[in-house]
Amino acid sequence: MVTIKDIAARLGIAPSTVSKGLNDANDISPDLKKLVLDTAIEMGYVTKKMKKEVRKKLCIFIENMKYENPQDFGFDIILGFKQAAMRDNWDIHIVPMTPVLQMKEPYDRYMVRNGYHGGFIIGFALKDPWMKQLERTTIPTVLFDNYIKINPNVAYIGTDSFEGIDLAITHLTELGHTKIALLNGSPDSMITANRYEAYITSMQSHGLKVDENLIAYGYYVEESAKYHVSSLIINGATAILCGNDLLAVGVIRECERLGIRVPEDLSVIGFDNLPIASQITPGITTLNQNRIDLGRNSFAVLYWLIAKVPVSRSLLRPQFIVRESTAKASETHLKLDNLEICEVIQNN
Amino acid sequence: MVTIKDIAARLGIAPSTVSKGLNDANDISPDLKKLVLDTAIEMGYVTKKMKKEVRKKLCIFIENMKYENPQDFGFDIILGFKQAAMRDNWDIHIVPMTPVLQMKEPYDRYMVRNGYHGGFIIGFALKDPWMKQLERTTIPTVLFDNYIKINPNVAYIGTDSFEGIDLAITHLTELGHTKIALLNGSPDSMITANRYEAYITSMQSHGLKVDENLIAYGYYVEESAKYHVSSLIINGATAILCGNDLLAVGVIRECERLGIRVPEDLSVIGFDNLPIASQITPGITTLNQNRIDLGRNSFAVLYWLIAKVPVSRSLLRPQFIVRESTAKASETHLKLDNLEICEVIQNN
Lengths: 348, 348
Description:
15 helices, Rossmann fold, disordered C terminus, four-stranded parallel sheet, 434 Repressor (Amino-terminal Domain)
């Protein structure tokens, strides 16, 4: 079990200072108090006060997304949400979700039966049974990367894909690329549709032709990239903009196999800035989604919905991070012959 | 000077209960505590604690918008902001702004010199000198109804125009209207551009033809409407969707003068739900912007920017309010002869 000493050791401060932070003492700065509380929550420490009080409950539902380990996309989103919510004294339950479970009981009844005051929904697909029900729910609900029209009880939070994709395409055009492919995420997600629309808008605003042969769909796993790499290159792509970092990793691995050099022959951009983006060689140029902030903001918006402030959407800015996977297009000389041979081998 | 007794009288509770609310006592419910504080702030009451503490300062800049009286658009926005901010112990200054004042000193220097931790900017025009500077400001700044790209220190808050315009056009099409005119606000504002785009998108999604002769621009005053009413009607409009309520009032007044009946001959929709919208005859069908909530949300977002959470935009949902100014298009029979005569008179 985590003790005050553990928290003190982690932060490099005296246990008495940690104790002051946890007990809301006046002779410690507000910023340090916040840090102590955030760290305590992150490490799973429970204060006596927390144990004693009857607390109100919120539920986080998560689907189609890993969240158990720090390198997973969902991990920091949940951590940020918990840090903000538990400071405000809410109990948080995390429920892994599936379409089958959603079929068993309507959303509103599930929430009321379990005494939840609000829900935070992560990773749902457009065709999930509860998505349709959210159009009329009376339960304050925040959706990560999904949008429901009109209903004042539901808000959408996420990162601004339009600004992100535009930053990426601006970077590539400055490097001389004109044949920029989009290897997008799973077709049944709102965010995939947004990034497609953002790609079209940004290509046009840069005066570049949109070529449907340079647009493909993968999924949120590395393996789904390899089927598209050679055809995108054969169709003339000198850069591939990926809907997420795992696709970018898949592109880089497939290029290795095909003998294509990244970034000399092909520039690759990801989205999300997962830990893997900086660990792989070459490091992936990508758009950072600050997942701790996304989690904190999700709680803040859910808090407003519970207070009857009808937030519709709240988006954070992505941050563009340049690493080694992008370079000047003029240095790009693709060996199409080799590629075509690889294609033949793959098809056999 | 406002006393505890005044607050008690206003709320219909005992002065001792008000005192408990102001002094953060434990034996009063959190909701009542909030209400006491909100009311105290609204009435201008200052507690001893507020006087004693050195507080951090925020500045609200306002331009092109009335805010002194409860019927003014800006009044409740500022009130909501103050209620949320002063509860968190911030000092709020309100500074009426003009382009000339903006020319005198750069935004960042003004903010630093006056010791402001953040700014809330309302009613600025796109060509205002400080707007360009906001692209690079390091001061946390929330803009009402204006958007700045990329800079993580600036956020946009407002009401979702796309959802609002779509609700209005859906309502009109359900009443059988197909010739729906847009009498938009001032051309040099971002929100006017948004509502134009929303109008085009919604007309097309309803399968209706967009006719440029049915689109006109006014301003945020009643008088700017009258120059457009007869030409929109001569061009076939059976309904006029206005960019704000004051334009809708202007349309109704001009119709009175021309002998056109609202809603029998012409349906009229406003935007904002100003007090005048329910006071005039006929009452104006409009889209409510909850201005207290907009103010509260603006403070919440500014608070996040100060904490380095890069909020890009946070939008509230408009609420569609049906009153008497809209009716079935089939009952519409316009006397074009009379109108044309009025036109000739106006032109002479």
